[in-house]
Amino acid sequence: MCGIVGYIGNKNTSEILVDGLKELEYRGYDSAGIAILQDDKIEVFKALGKIKNLATKVDDSKFKIQNSKFSIGIGHTRWATHGKPTELNAHPHLGEYSYVVHNGIIENYKELKEELQNAGHKFVSQTDTEVIVHLFEFYFNQNNDADLSFAQTIKRLEGAYSILLITKSQKDKIFFMKHGSPMAIAKGKNDDEIFFASSDAPLIGYASDVVYLEDGVSGVATSSSLTFSTDVSWTTLPDSKQFAQKDGYRFFMEKEIYEQSDVITDSMMGRITDEEIIFDEIDSNIINGINEIKICACGTSYHAGLTASYLFERLTKVRCSIEIASEFRYKEPLLNKDTLFIVISQSGETADTLEALKMAKDAGLKTIVVCNVDNSSMTRVADTTILTRAGIEKGVASTKAFSTQTVILWMMALAFAKQKNVISQEKLKSEIKTLREIPNSLKVEDSIHEKCRRLSKRYLHGHGFFFIGRDVFFPLALEGALKLKEISYLHAEGYPAGEMKHGPIALADPELFTIALMPQHLHYDKIKSNVEELSARDSTICAISPLDFDLADDFIKTKPANHYMLEFFEMLIVLQIFSMEITVRLGNDVDMPRNLAKSVTVE
Ligand code: F6R
After folding, report:
1. Which of 222, 245, 268 represents a domain boundary (last residue)?
2. From ligand 1's centre to the CA of 363, what distance in Å?
3. pLDDT digits (tens, 9 = 90+) for 224-281
4. What residue numbers bound the domain in which 102 lies?
């Protein structure tokens, strides 16, 4: 993740940078740093841990900015990916006379580093970022032209990144580039001030107009000019901090639904190439000698686990079972050492999941936690931690935690399949190609949001909802039903579509709402028959599918996709928005539904 800030102006640059970083702290707080250039002097401060440590270091130093004078500065709060959290690895990174802050991952950094080392450049950190500043100086030493050197540098970078670079050779400029990771640039309320940040939260109160950069846009800023590589569109920044935290969305849940497309990119970053899936965290022999995979979790995380249980068994050819943690703990489970035990948790603190993990660990099983919160209790117990990198989830109803968990687990299934040699390289490549399309499937289309909003009018009454699906669309149905009931307080059940005729179909009448998940690429004909059976008994049907379906009373058409997991994510968005819009209409608190808490630390 990481957060970056930048400033050009004649105010207190260190204070502005540090305050900005505090707003971005949720993006990572392993270490932080700022670099400020005034006159000919560059001052750099770095500190491990939270931003308050950096603030103390700046306060305790003798360094004083001359406020009336112009200065430029860049800052960074780090969430380590390459290299441990140390001061050396903290940003800004230094060449001989330039500094850079970076959010993202430079995928080809190893090749670039080798090339630069051969050319005599000395590296001091283990990060991917350091290559950027050396590359810049490598070109500048040849051509003495900072603009050209920056252009040459960014041309060589592969991966996802947003960058701010300052250099003593051009003391009034900040060079910037955005590709894959976010960056906003704003004009100050007073003239002669420019602000940069990874989100607009640090800009509120300071700046008036903002540009949210599109991918591929680079440029250069001075106090009196701002040049972009393409046309950009400016918008007015609102004044309220509350708005900033929600990035302009009405609720945290809405913001978190919309940001799924981006956070999935963070989840995959550095873990995927065209040919393979790499989890540096996982021992390359972990699957050796394993005859069973057991997954354990609660709530939404359980639904991600249930989805994964289909994928694990299908892809790795290893038996896979899933347990609800609160049940597992007390059933006196037989645990064999040839079982790999995976727990899933957004918070890493859920009491039942934590206890289940401890039981497995005590029984000598290999354990993995798929978790969103680093340093949480589960990450301290499990042998291996895989972080989902969804960023802080504030809405009590979990959204982006679920999508990131599901993607990580699917990637793990593919990595294990490769380790076991049960997947062909061709199939692996094609699955990787599909993984790369997920951010697109998770983009919320305006038309889909509007359709859900309009339909929400019809689905407020009645005696309940059945969400139905088959295969991985069954856990998705469970998740759709859970989302609806926890925030709207309407009764909803998720059910395997083929199981309806074994009892629940007795409830069918026009007051029973069936939400049918009908993917094109997984058992379409089977689910179609199940929905027809319900329609024949007069249930009100809302079908979600890329294929037209005449028998539905209402129909939400998703984008066609060529893999059922892409259809899965398209439908996930519909279910999340649908629940939220019904809840809005009912007037309930979307972010803090009654009786619930974000982290359930009691059994
Ligand atoms: C539902 C929801 C809960 C959690 C469950 C487990 O929207 O948020 O069902 O999924 O309490 O929490 P974690 O994943 O933190 O272990």
Report:
1. 245
2. 25
3. 899 999 999 998 887 766 555 777 799 999 999 999 999 999 899 989 998 999 999 9
4. 3-245
